[in-house]
């Protein structure tokens, strides 16, 4: 019974690691988009002063085109960030489904077998530790997804550079995801890999 359940958790954990890998690549892109948006906002004051265009300051069409392109790029970045939030939501839901699947394993056990869930076999984590790990992965990523969603929801073309820098710091640090704890969970599950 225990070995069979560990094999099932091995499959769930493998799917969870794939999801975390996709989360990390989505995170890199989201941070780059916020950073780019911050740089655009910081450039806009320079572009509003026509004297910064030197000899080209008389070319009103060029100046307006440059400003327009910057605003288009900012708008595109905000739209792409919203798309990244949809991906974070999907990944968070995937982790929640994995935790639910693991929970179903427990519900399918006979009452006398549930007491065996806390027993470790060799270097493998116990069934309870497997489930708690899946639940923790799900919870911390759901919380982080909710934070990212709230941060991006408030973005507009008129967001200040200081606000974008704060958003960037929060997006980059992922305060709901403790890297030490994630590493601990990965190490705990390592025998399952």
TrEMBL record:
Q: Which top-rank group of organisms is this from?
A: Eukaryota
Write the protein's name: Uncharacterized protein
PANTHER family found in the cross-reference section:
OS10G0566900 PROTEIN
The cross-references to Pfam families, in alphabetical order and at most eight, read: CA109-like
Show the InterPro entries listed in the entry.
Answer: CA109-like (IPR029159), OPRN-like (IPR038985)
Q: Which organism is it from?
A: Cymbomonas tetramitiformis
